[in-house]
Amino acid sequence: MNRLGGERRMVDGSMIQCAWSGRARLGEGPLWCPERGEAGQLLFVDILGRSLHEHDFASGRTRHWTLDEACCWLVPRDDGDGFIAGLASRLVHLRLDEDGPNIVGGWTTPDEPEGNRFNDAAVDDRGRLWFGSMKEREGEKGETGRGALYCLDGTKLRRVDDGYGVANGPAISPDGRTLYHSDTAAGLVYAFDLSLDGLSGKREHLRFNGTQGLPDGMTCDAEGGLWIAHWGGGRVSRFLPEGTLSETLILPASRVTSCTFGGPELDQLFITTAADGRDQEALAGSLFRVKPGVRGLPSPAFKA
What we know:
Number of strands: 25
Distance between the termini: 36 Å
Oligomer: single chain
Strand content: over 45%
Radius of gyration: 17 Å
Shape: globular
Largest sheet: 5 strands, mixed
């Protein structure tokens, strides 16, 4: 287990571009979709704003749709028929047509405590979906012990871990053998051994201190680096597999929520942020992008 120490700023702040400045209240769940648009599109959500956003890489245009229920994330299906989306209270089959999102089916969802919602997800190379939950509080990031970690394997849904304040940011290592998962409320990032049988060997991997924010969404690059968004810390940090801090990106927004690689060459890091509670920050809630010098990995699809 490693404690977050010093920092090394990786690029000059002028190299971080604001791709969209629409002030999402709680921007989250960035997903790169190479098959959409002329050169690919980034989908992301605004959980508190109950909206789904589509950022087109070629044109730079971003459009959005308002939803009846908050959407926390979405992942592609392996049959090409849209996405699995995690709404606040349920998992659904969602198609995104030219006219907007269309829910066409759903799954039985776990029995969560009243006031909880789902939060963040990732798919492993076997097509299994890993996602977490948290207690929903307007403008807050959770409460100790109310959240859990789930796995959807085909039609089989099971709870695999619990006791989280905010179960956040699953990320899978490039070799598929490690799943990283955070509890934002506790300031901890865990690592699990990931195999055909599921998860084992849970261990504390990183511990954040309050001065540099708390661990939120995350993603891995092709070299095994783990990129973590700092909620309240105004940065994204890259850690080597052993937990050593490698690089730091400083952003002009303090509530940094998640990140993923995209672009036609998967060499752009897209970063979501939150404007909720940050009226004094001009770019809070914006979508940012930067070319960090490493490439990401394609997003695996859920095996429906």
